[in-house]
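thought: fold this chain, then report.
action: predict
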Amino acid sequence: MIRRLIFDVVNPLVLRMEGNPAWPVRRRVRPVEASQESAFDALLGAGLDDGGPINYDLPYRKVEFLNYACDWRGLVAHGTQLDGLRVLEPIRLSSDSSDFGNLEQIFCSPDAIWAMWFAILDKSKAGVTRNGCVRIGEGAARVKYYHFALPAEARDRSPFTNGTIYLARAEDFPSPHNISALQVFGGDYEEWGSSVPVEPLARISVGPHDFPYLDRVLYYL
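observation:
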């Protein structure tokens, strides 16, 4: 608890030092109600078979289902505009500000919302982005911290589009992006990688309307 409170103060200061003037978005990971859990488990049980599409027809927001799959079922998510992939290949087509982000590997996240950012962001409309997701705490005490930023001119270019989230096994992504400073606070950077191809368990379509923090995107780069 104390470490999280300290992080609440330190994290915005670090982001501002890096040139990001926005306060981070914070999400507390909470268990879902029994009726939701039952419905989500049934859909996952029917959908996690051959990497095919999940037909989402539940009365809950799609992001709630995806958060449940990652937060409580231990799955990881990869977001892209490419649909129908049977194998995720470690092909790197863009550059990153971190050494880890420039490795030739497939990237995924144990956080569905961060993966959704990459699924809906049209990089042809916004080639530069700052984004991230940090987890502090474990289990029901987990808190996620996000930031999302784009160039100011991207606001008028409609930089978001439809995309796909691929769900996969956590063990297929054995390389975490370790940031030692976060471990002081009992946290981790929610980015993992694999240098070999990965077969996803299932895929699900998403759109800008599914992203819960679209109104918290900062346009300033």
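thought: worth noting. The radius of gyration is 17 Å.
final: tokens above.
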